[in-house]
Amino acid sequence: MSKKLKILIVGGTSTIAEHCARLWLKNTVCELILIGRDESKLHRVANDLMVRAPKAEVKVETVNFLSARDIQACIQRLNQSEPVDIALIAHGNLPDQENCQNDLTLCQDSIEVNAVSPVLFAEAIISNMIQCNHGKLAVIGSVAGDRGRKSNYIYGASKALIERYVQGLQHRLAIMNSCVSVTLVKPGPTETPMTAGISGKGRLASPEQVAKEIVGAVNAGKMVVYTPGKWFIIMKIIRNLPFFIFRKMDI
After folding, report:
1. What phi and psi values does residue 103 have, to the nearest 5 degrees?
2. Which PANTHER family match (predicted)?
3. Which of 2, 61, 122, 179 is the most buried (most CB within 10 A)?
């Protein structure tokens, strides 16, 4: 009988995370732990997953996403029995850029949720993985972190922090010759409740497609995955545009 994988998802109520969970439960014998802030939403997702996979073991945990002490205690408690095999950090929000410019409280909230909180979770999770010399961690960033743009530079700056953090973590693991892998996920705009206010819905990627590519990249231990893949080319062009051209683009 194959070993039951222990999979941890931070931001378990996000649409992309939910579709990743469905794929893991469909293809793997696993214990799934969903971490979030809203207990009722977590139970809704957990109940749906258990209907789809009746033999699944799905648990929920609530925690203060902005408390380093609470995050560390939660992750340590979850690692007391069996270590985590796969962890996905998937939470975040898409703030209105103009509102963030005009309200520093909203600006602070956005940076804390999209940058500080994921790093705190990642540090807590990777510490246990390093001790065991085992595990795969994936952190969802965004193509928005590739270059600052006037339309979303608060959000983009948060995702740029995530990218630099993951790069440093990957370097640390490489120097240690660790068996632990870390994958940076860079989705383009995806059809989720977070993007409900974006026009041109037909151009958004489906969460099913994005989840499939995330699960594949994590299982393969890839360092970076753009999803859909076209965003690798798009962002390479945008990153390398000279500023005298870029400054004229209303994006």
Report:
1. -135, 105
2. DEHYDROGENASE/REDUCTASE SDR FAMILY MEMBER 7B, DEHYDROGENASE_REDUCTASE SDR FAMILY MEMBER 7B
3. 122
Whether residue 68 contacts residue 120, with contact meaning beta carbons closer than 8 Å, is answered with: yes
Q: Where are the beta strands (DSSP E) in 15-79?
A: 30-36, 57-62
End-to-end CA distance of the chain: 53
**Dist CA 36 CA 64 (whole Å):** 8
DSSP state of 248: T
What are the residue ranges of helices labelled H in 4-67?
15-27, 39-52
Strand duo 86-89 + 5-10: pairing:
parallel
**Architecture of the domain defined by 5-246:** 3-Layer(aba) Sandwich (3.40)
Do residues 166 and 175 lie in contact, with contact meaning Cβ atoms separated by under 8 Å? no
Closest CA to 225 of 194, 188, 193, 192: 188
- C-alpha pair distances (Å), 36 with each of 1, 74, 188: 31, 11, 23
Angle between helices 39-52 and 15-27 (to 10 degrees): 30
Given a contact cutoff of 8 angstroms between Cβ atoms, the answer to whether 6 and 84 are in contact is yes
Q: Which of 2-6, 128-132, 208-212 has the lowest mean pLDDT?
A: 2-6
CB atoms within 10 A of CB 45: 23
The answer, yes or no, to whether residue 251 has pLDDT greater than 70, is: yes
Say whether pLDDT at 203 is over 70.
Answer: yes
User: With b meaning 16 or more CB within 10 Å and e meaning fewer, what string describes 151-181?
Assistant: ebbbbbbbbbbbbebbeebbeebeeeebebb
